[in-house]
Amino acid sequence: MDAIVLAGGVPKPETPLYEEAQGQPKALLDVAGQPMIQWVLDALNGAASVDHIIVVGLSQDAPIHSKKPLHFIPPQGHMVKNIMAGSDFLLQRNPQADLAFVVSADIPAITAPMVDWLAAQVTPGKVDACYTVVQREVMEKRYPTSRRTYTHLKDITVCGGDINIFRPALAHTNIDFWDRVIEARKNVFKQASLVGYDTLLLLLLHQLTLKAALDRVCKRLKIRGQAIISPYAEMGMDVDKPFQLEIIRADLEARRA
């Protein structure tokens, strides 16, 4: 599979990481001696399941490297458009591509075995999109001070992962819906209301299981979906705030040492 790495975004003055970034892309923030995205690229380079890597949001002169073929696409101004641009490039390179990774550049703690584990959970030709989640107890055991945002379902409490698998041809379907989902990505209740107010009500009452939530989304989008419960907190440990950046820096400095 190819991997689309989402590296767009320069922190603005009103955002928490502005002081750290100082006008530079978030993906290039220093983490334990190298750009944050480089840790992600290292994991993808070490994964047997990854072929080509497509970075959306950085230019070719970015201070990053890859042993595997690396392609650059300029930022498109919006996450959904970045995914669409990456998918278009991927399909031009390989029109027969069935599935691809889509990875955020701000989960630098992932490793190659984690990437390959995720690939092994998916059967090509059987699903259109696979969404990873991490259980609260797994996240808080690994990163007890991470202060993630959790969704409380009837059978499980989870946060979302930032490395997923999808069928690239889907990128140009349900665009308006995905735009609204991305806009509401920090508020699971707004996302639930986009699927339907009955779904929102069940979520508020903690009467919605993970499978039921998945089934409702798949029915709404007319796709075949799979929810993957990851045993790796690193898949959901994205860097949005300065204290999370410090957690990750300490974690990866210890790994490097």
Structure description:
This protein has one domain (2-256): Spore Coat Polysaccharide Biosynthesis Protein SpsA, Chain A, CATH 3.90.550.10. It contains 10 helices and 11 strands. The protein starts with a strand and ends with a helix. Strand 8 and strand 9 (157-160) form a beta hairpin. The chain has helices spanning 18-21, 36-46, 79-93, 112-120, 136-142, 175-183, 188-195, 197-204, 210-221, 242-256, and strands at residues 2-6, 30-31, 34-35, 53-56, 70-73, 100-104, 129-135, 151-152, 157-160, 163-166, 225-230. Helix 2 packs across helix 4 and helix 7 (188-195) packs across helix 8. The mean pLDDT is 87. By secondary structure, the protein is an alpha/beta fold. The longest helix has 15 residues, at 79-93.
